[in-house]
């Protein structure tokens, strides 16, 4: 046992780091394609470096979103529960650490098996989200009476199945975003993005003519076409308004946050740093896609025929940069509206978290724009804001058995899956959970016996 634990910890470290996962798959693909050594080296390193760049940009974004959240809470006197994946996972590790680790490793193995032997050809590469989902399964299953090997095997099967199948649910929308690029959505906020795209399709006649990236601006405002500049100006306005409101409400809090600097200068610095973080993310994404997608051809051709990489939501930002900002703002507004609805209905205030509303709201905006132009981006992201407010509120009772009353998972898929499994166990016991697992396994293999135009579910082959 003393030897096994360090080995498991090593694999957990690899499987929770998307950079290493991408590098590993790129390496395998390039070897399968029999590329020369120097191309294998560069083709393996670039996706790793690209994701590290994306991660560094995301960290800058998150660090500079934190003060914005404080400004809003202080300026508008809002207190309550802030959904945060990282917080609840860190809290859960003390009681669910080993189970989460085993579920994560089994989940990757099951994902590869499903991709190899079914038409769900999606390989989920966003390792930290796989870790979050493994933690959710360990928590919900343990609360439902599962333990030991029963818990780990059941959780691993669930994780592998949803990792392969959720990207397929909305791949037709993803291909509208990417215009046929061979990638899929590998992020557990995916159902909300697909709903946003479906909502956006209300305006499908305007999808091309009123696309967010075709917004016409006078020549004197042409600089707004520069994504970094437009993001900086938009966020500066947002930060300044909330900082002033917070300063009027409680100057001491704002001054402490500013660390002795003038609070206006501090707010502007955060806004501009946020824009820098987004630009770093875009550059990292370009580096990832330049080498990961070609390398995946080796896996697709030699190992898992038709394999498609399912990647992080931020990878989709460069496809519609203007929709990213529109989506963030619209999602946040939806979160505020949802907060008051949930507060009135359940007596719980789900405070809009800046991180989920930026990353999930921005992605919802990109998907809504692909199906309905700028109106689709705004309405789709607004609906996303409502969804990532309602789902965490409904998930709270399921997680309360572990004492996680003050936080919950923030992204939509976690809420949906946790609520379904939790209620199934509550109403039907372990048999309810097994029934859902059996249904997913059947759904995974049924397409094998049905003739379709493509050997990949919801992938439209090129003519």
Task: Explain the layout of strands and helices.
Layout: H1 4-15, H2 18-32, H3 37-76, H4 85-117, E1 122-124, H5 127-143, H6 148-169, H7 171-178, E2 184-185, H8 190-200, H9 227-249, H10 251-258, H11 263-303, E3 308-311, H12 321-346, H13 354-399, H14 412-428, H15 430-445
Q: What would your notes on this structure say?
A:
- The chain has 463 residues and is mainly alpha-helical.
- The chain is 72% helix and 2% strand.
- The protein is built from 15 helices and three strands.
- It has a three-stranded parallel β-sheet, sandwiched between helices.
- Helix 7 (171-178) packs antiparallel against helix 13 and helix 9 packs across helix 10.
- The mean pLDDT is 84.
Give the gist of this structure:
With 463 residues, the protein is an all-alpha fold. The protein contains 15 helices and 3 strands. Helix 2 (18-32) runs parallel beside helix 11 (263-303), helix 4 (85-117) packs across helix 6 (148-169) and helix 14 crosses helix 15.
